[in-house]
Amino acid sequence: MATGVSILNKKVNVPKYLHELHGESPTMFSLLMTYFTGLIAGLLVIVFISSSGMPIWKKLILFILYLDIAGGVVANFSSSTKRYYEKHVELRYYFIFLHFLHPLLFILLFPDSVYYFIYVGLFTIIACLFLYQVKNVEVQQTFASFLLVAGVLISFFFNLPLKVLYSFAPLFMTKLIIGFSVKRQDHEYQD
């Protein structure tokens, strides 16, 4: 059993083009869980919308969006990703603003729900930018938790055509507000 744990804790040097997703040397466990979580989320969303009559191209984009968002929740909690963005502070704002693409793609898929996706995108990105200004780690963590709870609860005031779309707010906000923007202790696995 110890050998299996050692393999999961083994550091993997990922290619440079994946550093923004995983950092420079994530553990095997972190990589596996990131892609497993994303794949499960993407597949479950496809199952939920299978009878919706949605065109295949929309289903494919939705699958990719949920793969990225749910996998990103796990990746943003990894020590390797946290260390990478602590070392490359200049990329933090780029990473956050890049996430405007998610709500824009959702709006392309569900134009009648434009206000929900604008709300989730703006709330999340503004929360992240605000949290970067908070220097006290405990205050930052506590306030981020408040923002996540408030943001998710407000998201239920919107009417959406598919129930599964309500999962966008909690996943997106967890990924960026708690997972990416909050400082925390590095929890490296010990062999």
What spatial form do the alpha-carbon principal axes imply?
Answer: globular
Estimated helix fraction: over 70%
Number of DSSP strands? 0
Which structural class matches the secondary elements? Answer: mainly alpha
Sequence stretches where pLDDT stays below 50 over 5 or more residues = none
Largest sheet: none
Gyration radius over CA: 17 Å
Strand % is: under 5%
Q: Please give the count of helices.
A: 10
What's the structural domain tally? 1
Taken in chain order, the helices and strands follow as: HHHHHHHHHH
Q: Please state the average pLDDT score.
A: 91
Write a concise synopsis of the structure shown.
This protein is mainly alpha-helical. The protein is built from ten helices and no strands.
Protein described:
The mean pLDDT is 91. This protein is 70% helix and 0% strand. The chain is mostly helical and 191 residues long. The chain is built from ten helices and no strands. It has one domain (2-180).
Keywords:
mainly alpha
Structural topology:
Elements lengths: L1 H8 L9 H4 L5 H22 L6 H21 L2 H9 L2 H9 L2 H9 L4 H20 L3 H19 L12 H13 L11
